[in-house]
Amino acid sequence: MSNSQRVAGRHFLQIPGPTPVPDRILRAISYPTIDHRGPEFEKLGRTVLSGLKSIFKTTSPVIIYPASGTGAWEAALVNVLSPGDKVLMFETGHFATLWKNMAMKLGLEPEFIASDWRSGADPAAIEARLREDKTHAIKAVCIVHNETSTGCVSPVQAVRKAIEAARHPALLLVDTISSLASIDYCHDEWGVDVTVAGSQKGLMLPPGLSFTAISEKALKTTETAKLPRLFFDWREMLRANAQGFFPYTPSTNLLYGLREAIEMLHEEGLENVFARHDRHAEATRRAVRAWGLEIWCKEAQHYSSSLTAVLVPEGHSADRLREMALEHFDISLGTGLTKLAGKVFRIGHLGDTNDLTIIGALAGVEMALHLAEVPHRAGGVQAAMAYLTKAARGELAVTA
Ligand SMILES: *Cc1c(COP(=O)(O)O)cnc(C)c1O
Description:
It is a single chain. The protein is built from 13 helices and 14 strands. With 400 residues, the chain is of the alpha/beta class. The structure holds pyridoxal-5'-phosphate. Pyridoxal-5'-phosphate binds at residues 17, 68-70, 95, 144, 148, 175, 177-178, 198, 207.
């Protein structure tokens, strides 16, 4: 097939980010770029900065960076920590590992609680470690809310309770890059100090923006934190943001898209958005079970509503399956990352997804399972349809 051959219809972008960008958002992004120091921008700036708070469920400031999620990770660390500080991190998977490696390179001393990548962070293990830390050498606990490499969710509120139970003053830093606006999250109520998010996953935007929500305590800590920072310095940002502006040129057009995305999330209602993600995740899991394949995440309490990672049987290649799916059905599925390479594929069901999108995606997977000769049973799509039909009739018992 030549590269120039036209493929009819819409590409199915079923990776756990970037996610498909709705036409409404694409159109908003196409508005003319304006003077970022002028009165029209001020209105845009104020609207997105205050609108974001409702998505993080916070009354504290939320900062917007013209950077991918990795930038906000760095911002979270450099604004509250000093060289040599100990941070306690939990090895939920590939992304937790990258964040830990970043902490190390920045001159921090991360301590990594090991795990098999098949569950969320364990609050009891965190509490036990903090209790041992009598001198309070650990300055922050960092966890990934939704581990995108494994499809496992960590119990953020329980981790905060574990920190309290240990009577430990550590800050709580949470990565919600693939969960914000897909899985319920409460920055204030759960007592999180710094929440990190990105534009290209649940928020339905193209890549290029990232966010940090900041607690009062984190804001105070930043005054004494000694890691060098300039581009990511909260203080410069907050001074400019208070007037609706930015200390350097913002991604104006992506901010048009962000304004539209926030509006769309509220038009649907955040609780409905979360329920839709739960429904599509459950439909996906029913398909996987009907195929006779294994969901990588071990326990129902950690199941992700953003994505499902699926284990392929020993001796078969998840990447071969993904190649078949792309070549024949124009659907992109998530690859297995680092130690999961070739072993799992990931079905993204976050962002602007409806019942038929998910059924189409699952049909693509089921056909590709045949083509790649991965041993499985038929009937996955059927099981998902049965579930979604029940949901449409209002007969749905809430299930995990
Ligand atoms: C996507 C993702 C990242 C990385 O974000 P970039 O935008 O690629 O820099 C980090 N953490 C999680 C949980 C993610 O899903």
